[in-house]
Write a structure and sequence with these properties.
Elements (H helix, E strand, L loop, with lengths): L2 E7 L5 E6 L2 H9 L7 H4 L5 E8 L2 H13 L2 H13 L2
């Protein structure tokens, strides 16, 4: 079982970072009235996962999530763009 740290882009251009076991399910939760979706994204729909990293443990994913959340938006955008260019 793998954990993911992910970034979603909201309809207003803001970014939200979180962790999950299932990227598709989590994106769906953010985009529906499911109570499991983050309060932050509830009024910023639709959202789309634009970046993810895979980890072996929840702890590793949480550490990365915390680090990314401390970054300014500019750095998050650079990470997303670098990932898109590498594909």
């Amino acid at each position: 079982m793998a954990w993911f740290c992910y970034i979603v882009e909201c309809s207003d251009g803001s970014l939200y970072t979180g962790i999950t076991l299932d990227l598709k399910r989590r994106e769906d939760e953010h985009n529906t009235d499911d109570k499991k979706g983050a309060k932050y994204t509830r009024y910023k729909r639709p959202v789309k996962i634009v970046y993810s990293e895979k980890f072996q443990t929840q702890s590793q994913a949480r550490i990365r999530e915390a680090a990314i959340k401390r970054w300014p938006k500019e750095n998050k955008v650079k990470l997303i763009m670098k990932n898109k260019m590498g594909r």
